From TrEMBL:
Keywords annotated in UniProt: Electron transport, Flavoprotein, FMN, Transport
Cofactor(s) essential for the protein: FMN
Family annotation (NCBIfam families): PRK09271.1
Lineage: Bacteria, Bacillati, Bacillota, Bacilli, Bacillales
Segments crossing the lipid bilayer: none
Record InterPro entries: Flavodoxin, Flavodoxin/NO_synth, Flavoprotein-like_sf
Function: Low-potential electron donor to a number of redox enzymes.
Keyword Flavoprotein: yes
Protein name: Ribonucleotide reductase-associated flavodoxin, putative
Family: Belongs to the flavodoxin family.
Record carries keyword Transport: yes
Record GO terms (molecular function): FMN binding; oxidoreductase activity, acting on NAD(P)H
Domain Flavodoxin-like: 1-118
Naturally occurring in which organism (per UniProt): Lentibacillus halodurans
Length: 125
């Protein structure tokens, strides 16, 4: 959904599948969208931790998003991995947290978040 939105705005988007695709050169990207789910009691998944190690440094152009499930852990743990990663990367954007797969009104939340991130990036250019 994010890639489709970016491409509709005439931007190029590469999809990197953590643990499957070869490591990326983060410095080659103007903006990195990093998605995660929240594992167990609010933990960041090992695959995402591997990506952090793969990069080797903390780029300042990372926007975080993730899905969660409020029925497991309630509001306190909902998408906690997004909060942890946003703090780790000192992201300039608030993390996007949505319930499982975005549908209906959640798609609008994703679009609004993307508009905010891209507006900020374009204003810096």
């Amino acid at each position: 959904m994010i890639a489709d939105y970016l491409e509709a705005d005439r931007m190029t988007a590469d999809l990197h599948r953590i643990g499957i695709d070869p490591p990326i050169d983060a410095s080659a990207y103007d903006l990195i969208f990093l998605g995660t789910f929240t594992w167990e009691m609010g933990a960041t998944p090992d695959e995402v931790k591997d990506f952090v190690l793969e990069i080797g440094y903390k780029p300042n152009n990372v926007a975080l998003f993730g899905t969660g499930d409020t029925q497991f852990g309630g509001d306190d743990l909902f998408c906690l991995a997004v909060d942890k990663l946003a703090a780790f990367y000192e992201s300039r954007w608030p993390g996007l947290k949505i319930e499982q797969s975005p549908r209906g009104s959640q798609e609008l939340i994703v679009e609004k978040w993307l508009e905010g991130v891209l507006h900020h990036v374009k204003s810096l250019a």
